[in-house]
Amino acid sequence: MATKIRLQRHGRKGRPIFTIVAADSRAKRDGKYIENLGQYNPNTNPATIDLDFDRALDWVMKGAEPTNTALAILKYKGVMMKKHLLLGVQKGALTAEQAEERFESWAADKAGRIDAKIETLNSNAKAAKEERLKAEAAVKEARAAAIAAKNAPAPEVVEEAEEVAAEATEEVVAEEAPAAEATEATSEEAAAE
Questions:
Q1: Is residue 122 situated within a structural domain?
Q2: What is the CATH number of the domain that holds 12?
Q3: Is 49 contained in some domain?
């Protein structure tokens, strides 16, 4: 029986989530499988991969053939690197300690690159959000200025209104002066009586 490590498609239309399985090569894509090895979600950036490392390594060491996508996932998670190092130990090219040390340094380097990518994506998203907010604020200011210009009277109308207001104040002052004199006269007459 030829065993394959492959993906089973689940999820809704346009948003797939894959299960990584070890299955007989004659079985249907989403059919019966031997063992569930993990999940692969390509909808996130970077893709989310939950893999049972030890069981996947065991199946690869037993001779299970991964499909192209499954091979890429296994390389990404380090299963194929670990297999390479274990074969080197079997052949006598390395000791088990050297192989483990090399794998740990590779895994640390890989984790650093993944973290750097996530940090870059987050900083780019934050910068893009700030740019959108600045553009939105500029549009808001432009709209407010346009509304203010539309609602404000024309400059000629403002000058005419100022002239009318000045004439009205002069008339009021002129009317108040005789009234004040008349009031003084009536108060003098009242005092004389």
A1: no
A2: 3.30.1320.10
A3: yes
For the entire predicted model, the pTM comes to: 0.66
Number of domains in the chain: 1
Q: How far is CA 101 from CA 82, 105, 106, 179, in A?
A: 11, 6, 9, 108
Run means of pLDDT, 10 residues per run, the chain, 193 residues:
91 95 92 94 92 94 94 94 92 90 93 92 93 92 87 69 72 61 56 56
Residue 67 lies in a domain: yes
Task: Print the domain residue range for 23.
Answer: 3-79
| DSSP annotation string for 2-20 | -EEEEEEEEEETTEEEEEE
pLDDT in tens, 2-33: 899 999 999 999 999 999 999 999 999 899 99
Tokens linked to 92: 């006598």
- Asked whether 99 and 86 are in contact (CB, 8 A), the reply is yes
Reference 8, options 142, 24, 100; nearest CA is 24
Residue environment code for 2-32, b if the CB has 16+ CB neighbours within 10 A, otherwise e: ebbbbbbeeeeeeeebbbbbbbeeeeeeeee
Instruction: Report yes or no on 23 lying in a domain.
Output: yes
